[in-house]
Every structure is written in C-alpha cells, then in structure tokens.
Specification:
- Its EC number is 3.2.2.31.
- One of its GO terms (molecular function) is oxidized purine DNA binding.
- By secondary structure, the protein is of the alpha+beta class.
- The chain has helices spanning 3-14, 26-35, 41-54, 58-63, 66-73, 80-95, 104-109, 115-126, 135-144, 154-167, 173-186, 205-208, 269-277, 334-343, and strands at residues 225-235, 240-241, 244-245, 256-257, 260-262, 286-290, 296-299, 303-314, 322-323.
- It has three domains: 1-11 and 127-220, Orthogonal Bundle (Endonuclease Iii, domain 2), CATH 1.10.1670.10; 25-126, Orthogonal Bundle (Endonuclease III, domain 1); 225-343, Nucleoside Triphosphate Pyrophosphohydrolase, CATH 3.90.79.
- The protein contains 14 helices and nine strands.
- The strands form three sheets. Strands 1, 5, 6, 7 and 8 form a five-stranded mixed β-sheet that branches. It has a two-stranded antiparallel sheet with strand order 2-9.
- Strand 7 (296-299) and strand 8 form a beta hairpin.
- The protein binds a DNA duplex through residues 32-44, 75-81, 84, 111-117, 120, 132, 134-137, 153-154, 177-178, 181-182, 184-185, 190-191, 218, 220-222, 224, 249-253, 298-303, 333-334.
DNA sequence: AATCCGGGGCC
DNA sequence: GGCCCAGGATT
C-alpha cells in the first residue's frame, strides 16, 4: 500500500466524531479551521458550537457587532482571528452574495485565511486537490520520510509543501487531508508517538534510524519578555467602575480592561491621580490598596505579564462609568476575566 | 527573514 | 521552564 492509502485506511478506522465532520458546508469548515489555528481541538470545540448556535449562517455573523463576536471569542486567544472572521463574513456576504468562493486563489484573499486554511477549505468543502500542511503534517512527513530540514525555514516550508503535494491522494483529498492531520494528532504525536502499533512502522525512515524523537526540526525559540501591569479597579459611590478598550497595536486589540499603569515601579498616589484624570475624575478624594500582595503572572507565548490589581475607591462618581452589573458584558482578556471572577463586584 | 499575536495542556 | 497546538499578518 502507498503512504496515502495507509493514511486513508487509518483515518477510516480511527477518525474522531467532531462537530464539523458531519458537513462540508464551507461556512462550517471555514469557522472550524479559523478556530483551530494554533489551537487544540479540545479547546476550540466549545467555541465552534457556541458560534454555530449564535450565528447559524455567515449572514448572521456578518450582521453581528464586533464586540459580540469578541465576547464569544473571549478566552480563545489570538483575537485578530475574531476580527478577521468578522471582516471575511462581511466580504462573503456582500461581495460573494453569501456564497463562499470555491477556488484556492480566491479563498487565499480572504482575511485570516492563509495557505493552510485556503487549502483546507478548498479540499474539505470543494474536494479540490490542494495539500494541507499544518503542524501535524510537518511532523508526519518529517518522520516518515526522514526529513531534517527545519520546518520553519523558508526552504523547509516550500519543501514540505512540495512533498505534501507529491504524496497526497487526489481521489479522496477531502478525507486524505483530514486523515494525515488526524494521524498526526492521534498516532504520530509530538511526544511518545505510538510507533509500536502504527500502520507505517514498516517503512518509517525516522523509526528505522531512531530519530523519531528528533523530528521535525524547528529553529530558534522565542524569548519571553517581562511586562509589569498595574490595573486600577476604580469603584465609585454608585457601584460603577471603569473599562477602557485597547486601541492600536499590541496584545488584545479591541478588548476591554481596567485603566492600566504599565510600570515596574509601584505607582504612588500621584501616579494614580494622574491616571484618573484621563477619565475626567478631577480632585476627588479616593483611597486605594493593593488587591494582590503576591504578583499574578499571566503568561502569553512571548510575554509574562506581572500584574497587580489596585482597588481605588472614589467618594464621588465616575463620569460615564460602567455599572457593576454590566461588566460581564464586555470582552476582556483572561487575565482581567479571572480577576473579575475572583473579586465579585 | 524575523517578530508578533493567547491561552491551555503536558511533561 | 519549554514545547506544542488543524497559522496568519506585519515589519
């Protein structure tokens, strides 16, 4: 049997029953693929179900407010995916009359859709012969064919795509593509792959050369930077607080958070007063205390956010404040959501 | 070509 | 602490 025939057979026997596998509707496939970018199936699945329930069609998604989408996306991370999701929903609804484009080239033009996702939609929804190359495919191909080229080098990306195209099964690309990814996720796992009971173990180069643990090869690890956050949890006499939307570049674009003083130095009363003035709180008496004595470290993939929350109690009221009862309606980062849950306004 | 962009699970 | 996850956009 060929490589692809074995993958197809393995998939037929071992495939999981996932919510987006009972359809080839491009809306469902697109939504699932966006959500699963750099995201485990177990983490993404509840979000997929939530979105399908709230937005049964792409037209519903296009008509939603961005804040509503971000709120449903809250906790899934990589929030540009949610913003691009909205943009593409509008594009398909308005420029394609609600019908997804059905070519790789057109799919690739959609926001948030890159080479992998365009190939995935083209193959799974339209059965077009486009190979997918995700993290699973890199691993399976690197091991089976004994490829030591770094998967994140320019040459490696091109080479693996070329190999993937050469070995794919064009007769059933829909199942083959899902099969090789599923095979990587279930059988040929990053750590402790199940080589003993593998349909490819008679012809796997890495297994023969005892290099399974060393493949695939990936270059350079990112360095993590420390940042120091001081959130001002302002509370006024009318049970209101302050939430501000993050604008511009950087993390958590368009999500909300408390007023933030980013500084390793503990903010003093003057620093807090200066920050409050930005919210038209002028010459009001206030008291404040540090909520968490032990620093909270929120870890992102490339930043460690060392955070203190400060409770700032005003005598008067906040102009245009957010009522305690409304706080839960705003999309916020997990760091902020965890605090809100703990504090109970 | 390198960097940025989340959060969670696992070792 | 490091690595990985059905990657893409930006610089």
């Amino acid at each position: 049997m060929t490589f692809s025939a074995k993958i197809l057979h393995w998939y037929d026997v071992n495939k999981r029953d996932l919510p987006w596998r009972n359809t080839v509707n491009p809306y469902n496939i697109w939504l699932s693929e966006i959500m699963l970018q750099q995201t485990r199936v177990a983490q993404g699945t509840p979000y997929y179900l939530k979105f399908i329930e709230n937005f049964p069609t792409i037209k519903d998604l296009a008509a939603a407010k961005e804040e509503e989408i971000l709120k449903l996306w809250q906790g899934l991370g990589y929030y540009s995916r949610a913003r691009n999701l909205h943009a593409t929903a509008k594009t398909v609804t308005n420029e394609y009359k609600g019908e997804f484009p059905n070519t790789y080239k057109e799919l690739l033009q959609l926001k948030g859709v890159g080479d992998y996702t365009a190939s995935a939609i083209a193959s799974i929804s339209f059965n077009l012969p486009e190979p997918v190359v995700d993290g699973n495919v890199y691993r399976v191909l690197a091991r089976y064919y004994g490829i030591a080229m770094p998967i994140n080098s320019t040459e490696g990306i091109k080479y693996f795509k070329k190999i993937a195209r050469e070995v794919m099964n064009v007769k059933n690309i829909r199942d083959y593509n899902q099969g090789i990814m599923e095979f990587g996720a279930i059988q040929c796992t990053p750590r402790n792959p199940n080589c003993a009971d593998c349909p490819l173990n008679d012809s796997c180069v890495a297994l023969k050369e005892n290099s399974v643990q060393d493949l695939p090869i990936k270059l350079k690890k990112i360095k993590v930077k420390d940042r120091f956050f001081n959130y001002l949890v302002v509370i006024d006499a009318l049970e209101q607080s302050i939430l501000k939307q993050r604008i511009g570049k950087g993390i958590w674009q368009n999500l909300y958070e408390f007023p933030l003083i980013e500084s390793q130095i503990t903010p003093n009363k003057v620093a807090i007063e200066t920050e409050l003035k930005k919210y038209d709180i002028l010459n009001q008496k206030f008291e404040y205390y540090k909520f968490n004595e032990e620093v909270i470290v929120h870890k992102l993939s490339h930043q460690h956010l060392k955070t203190h929350f400060w409770i700032v109690t005003l005598e008067g009221e906040i102009p245009n404040g957010v009522a305690f009862t409304e706080i839960d309606k705003f999309p916020v980062p997990v760091l902020v959501a965890d605090f809100i849950k703990t504090f109970k306004f």
